Amino acid sequence: MDKKGLRAALLLSAFFMLLGSALRSIPLTEQPLRRWLIHGGHILNGLAGPTIMSAGPFLSTTWFAPDQRATATAVASLSSYLGSAASFVIAPLVVPAPNRTWSSPYAVAAVSDSAIRDRIQLVMYAELTVIAVLFAAVLLYFPSRPPMPPSVAAASQRLSYRTSICRLLSNVRFLMLALAYAVPSGLIAGWAGVLNTVLTPAKVSQVDAGWIGFWSTVGGCVFGVAMARFADSIRGMLKLILVLMLAGASLSSTWFTLTCLSSFTHLPSTAAILYTSCILVGIFINSSVPIFFELLIETVYPVPEGITCGVATFLGNLVSGLLLIFLTFYSTDLSWLNWCLTGSCLFSLVLILFFRESYDRLYLDVFVSV
Chain centroid to CA 289: how far? Predict the structure, then answer.
């Protein structure tokens, strides 16, 4: 992305997504072969992830003026979260939960499995159609950069790949900020994936859990864009915004965790309290993503945006991967996962409080342009 431009990187990512969706949509009856195709499709889809997740800051720097960059980063980075929000609603509505209440369990299991399999296949076909349309759109028109750079930073030279990696790994401030981003964002990604199981002890249905995940993700997108617009209007205050967001995430996650343990804590555990605390967790953590990206780039400039956000995204995915490994061994009682989420928010808040901010890219744009 940094060397060949945004068009080439996005076109390759869209092709990976198209090929991966096509592989997992092939309706084979041989389960072993289809299992390999589904895993291969997911791997191809995962290869597209780094560009899609970290291209927002590169896009905003290339196309937008300094007083619009945080907003553009928020829109580009958080728009992919809308797909996750839609999955919370579509999953329980399109693919029903297994029905085990009929008198003949053997007949029910056969019918239910067949119906669920057909619905999942329908979802895969729909995703393949959407991705094919997006691939065609990128192929027909997606320029890498505007005719004229919108800022001094957009036209300035960046460091080489090897130099950038060495500088990132030796920069303590970058590592502090990257960990502060990766730990809570990676944990909430895995936590949201099993939200239905997390809320089961609180007697929350699959459909209600889906709506909670939907509103927490959508709320994070809306609040994130609003805070990014606020950051553009008062530039140089990204650390303060992150401190407030992470403090809110720490309080709301603690509230949610203690509410889920109401039998021990004797705190009120109504549906409204449970829904509000859970939605607030998603809002505060998800909305912090574009602010983290902007501060990461400001901290290590002139390291290219793609490498900077790519390393941070890799760390976040690594945290999610480790969490999924733990879930394979400790999947019966997930109360520990709520405590991990609370601890990750507090850990990130402490790192940000001790972080020393700098705005090298903003300094270049403001003073050199003047």
Answer: 8
Q: What's the pLDDT tens digit per position in 34-79?
A: 899 999 999 999 888 878 878 888 889 889 988 899 999 999 888 8
Polymer length of the chain: 370
pLDDT in tens, 198-217: 887 777 777 788 888 888 88
Instruction: Give whole-number Cα distances, 335 to 95, 176, 189, 216, 246, in Å.
Output: 26, 28, 16, 20, 21
Instruction: Report the candidate in 143, 79, 66, 60 with the shortest Cα–Cα distance to residue 309.
Output: 60
Least confident of 14-23, 101-110, 221-230: 101-110
Cα–Cα distance for residue pair 304/174, rounded to 1 Å: 14
